[in-house]
Amino acid sequence: MSKIDKQPVTDKPVPAQAPEEHQLKRELKVTDAASFSMSLIGPVGAMALLGAGAAALLGTGASWAFIFAIVGVSLVAYGFIKLSRYIAHSGSVYALVGQTLSPKAGFIAGWALLGGYLAIGAGSTIEIALFFNRFLQGIHILGSDASAWIWTALAAMVIIIVLSFREMKVITKVLLICEMVGVALVSLLSVVILFRTGLGHGPQGQTLSWSFLKLPRGSGVGTIAGAAVFGFLAFAGFEGAAALGEETVNPKKQIPRAIKLALVIVASFFLLTIISQSVGYGTSPAEVLRFSSSAGPYGDLGTAYVGAWLAASLNLVASISLFAITIGDLNAGARILLALSRDGGAPKILTRVSKRGTPTTTVAVAAVPILGIIIGQRLAGTGVVDATFYWLTIGTLSLLVAYAFATVGAFRFLFLKLPRKAPGWQAAVPVLALAFVGYTIYKNVVGVVGPYRFFPYIVLGWLLIAVIMLMVVPGLTGRLRKGLSDPNDAAAPAAPAPTAQPVKELSS
């Protein structure tokens, strides 16, 4: 029986170790971990453009992309939730896969997740500039200079890097506030749209009906799966709480709860938003075209249904939500890089943790490729909307690879290793999850045209870097195996929580 087979699920906190140097602080609660997952998803920022992307493929049936994704992500989340009850580690997928399949598979999966976070962080930062500049234009502070986005994006990254050096507890509070303000405003707009169209008083005669579920002629499961990349992208980062395994109190209890809480809240918000956007624009061919080609659905609908003030406010909260996404991506990526570096025997400077419990070096290292992508896209003359979609799509494909690894690991650990840790009938869940993920990857790799046809090769190239490191770095696999199996790591069984001592004992 393996080490992780022997480890019981426990509600007791994992005690802080006595490290030679500073380490990550174990102080987060379930709300903090859930806030972190929700920040990586960034529901307000995600729905700022992704609904329009789905509408370009599914027309009035854009909602099906998100329904498909909710089912698929729920199935994938099963593996993360189950494994997080046994494994708590800052490496997230790296540890989940490394302890259930092999250290090599874990390293590749962790590298894929890291690549996904960096790419999505870059795309989200570019999108910050898109919506913040729209806000400035809406209040007549900025003109229509299409190239101005680079300065806004770089300024945002500077602020994000500075904030990322703070304690994680402070970061999660900032992220939660950012998202809740945005969710409240977008939900208000959604309710107004559904109320006005329900009464038949849409600004251009739009009415509430079941037409938002109608698919274009000739569409089927394959078309929905192709568009579901926008839905999966919307949920990208739901597993983010798993990267806080060494910073959360009672991680084997709280992290599964955090993932479930984040998914329920975000899925409800996504359904409300995509339905209201589809209904708000209308379901005629001309109205669907306007929706699918819009670079600012919040602004369009806010102006049409409420007023210009709400449109400007929604562009602002969208940029704030995207700001939270990049903070989450940078910090999650930094923690995965910390785990890979620490277990892989990298120089100590790369595994340095500040007194505040922040992996300062890996935060700085992870910020470099994000900044490089942003600057590279501007030098290439790529438009802000295209640059956003390019890197969000690349990041999603990389995340899907990591999800596939984690799903296979969950199946093996839960059902193939004795004793089984879940009822046999539940084995169908990871099988279906793998089918969802695999088919979505297939539909976004085969037959894709334009620049998007090169994206799978970018992801493959990124994964090959991990494979090459495993092949050429002496002793890397052995060090990873030792790091993952060390009985002093965060996956060890939790010890009883310290209890208050009697006054007599304390004074003795």
Write the layout of secondary structure elements.
Layout: H1 3-6, H2 30-41, H3 43-46, H4 50-58, H5 63-83, H6 93-98, H7 103-138, H8 149-164, H9 168-198, H10 221-235, H11 251-281, H12 285-292, H13 297-305, H14 308-344, H15 360-379, H16 384-416, H17 428-443, H18 455-472, H19 476-485, H20 503-506
Helix pairs in contact: 2-9, 2-11, 2-14, 4-10, 4-12, 5-10, 5-11, 5-16, 5-17, 7-8, 7-14, 7-15, 7-16, 7-18, 8-14, 8-15, 9-11, 9-13, 9-14, 10-16, 10-17, 13-14, 14-15, 14-19, 16-17, 16-18
Descriptive report:
The protein is mostly helical. 67% of the residues lie in helices and 0% in strands. The chain is globular.
Quick tags:
508 residues, mainly alpha, Amino acid/polyamine transporter I, 20 helices, disordered N terminus, disordered C terminus
Gist?
The protein is mainly α. It has 20 helices and no strands. The chain has one domain: Amino acid/polyamine transporter I.
Overall mean pLDDT stands at 83
Q: In one word, what is the shape?
A: globular
Instruction: Specify the number of helices.
Output: 20
| Helix/strand order | HHHHHHHHHHHHHHHHHHHH
- Rounded to the nearest angstrom, the distance between the terminal CA atoms is 45 Å
Strand content: under 5%
Helix-strand category: mainly alpha
State the major sheet: none
Rg result: 23 Å
Any guess at the CATH architecture? Up-down Bundle
